[in-house]
Design a protein that fits this description.
With about 375 residues, the protein is α/β, with parallel strands linked by helices.
Amino acid sequence: MGGLRRVLPAGPSRGVRGSERKQQIFGGGRWRVVRTGTPLEGSVGCGSSCEQLVGGAVQRSIESSRPQAPRFPSEVKVRRTRVGVHFFDVATGLNVLLDEVSVDPQDWDQAPRQVSVALTNSCDLACPYCYAPKLKARLDATRVVGWMRELDDNGCLSVGFGGGEPTLFPGFPSLCSGVASQTGLAVTFTTHGHRLTAGLCDELRGSVQFVRVSMDGVGATYERLRGRPFAILLERLANVRRIAPFGINFVVNSETIDDLDDAVELAVKVGASEFLLLPEQPTVQRAGIDEATSTRLREWVRDNDPALRLTVSTAGADGLPVCVPLTGELPSEAYAHVDAQGVLKWSSYGSEGVTLDDDGLMAALHKLRERGGMA
């Protein structure tokens, strides 16, 4: 999957535009763009509100746009980019962008802001619209941790594990723990949820910052499409809160759109903090979301203001009123994907990529950028 965009709430008074302060959502985290025209108390274009947002970590005297590591608590990552200096609180998901701080191109962090990793192609469901490869493949945990250390050293902020079904990956809790202990990356994963027993959730707690649970439809719709009891999913959703904040992923197509209202209502009820719309993408077997359903989705977004964050996949965002916090960021600086065969791509939907070898992930990323195909 590609990146995410936050959907603007309905109603003319709720949107923010131009140079106004924005508090926005991107990939499960909150955003604030801090304008630096009126710095306070000697801070580097960052008033007291900015200091409060990152737990008081921003020092009042920073000699350059490259902050010194000892000045920040370990859970706050700093990313230097063409669009400014980006602070990310791993623990809370809060993003703060100082977008008027100019960073020398030689100092730009080279890793994508976020990376997804398909740990395995194995899955114990058979959803008809699934785009994941069916070829048997699985990554090596030691190599994955090594790649994550590379990404962390080069300015990446978060990794999202998926598949297939990531909880089928042998030693999945140990892998998450290893990444959490050896890097400063935020760790998230996407799951169908049915393997999230209380025991597994307890093992994952402390190593994962956010969980995404797939729920395409409710009740009979869900059971017909996913082939599992909906009541069991609800039990697992009660468990997932033992790990971390979580969101609901919802594939939108002609079979699920009638359940959208009920799904959002249920997501709020069970304590989800985000609802991710995934307009169905075309596969070899299916054409993807049809135009009539796309129109209904746009109308639904226009007419509704849910009581939780509403986001949409970049691949399905056309025609929707979305916020893009990092407006100058290139796609190749935002996101990349590693599939279960160890191939680095710009998107999980992509067919072309670079095979990761002993030279590591950053070397493969350099090769991928040299090939072009994405700015």
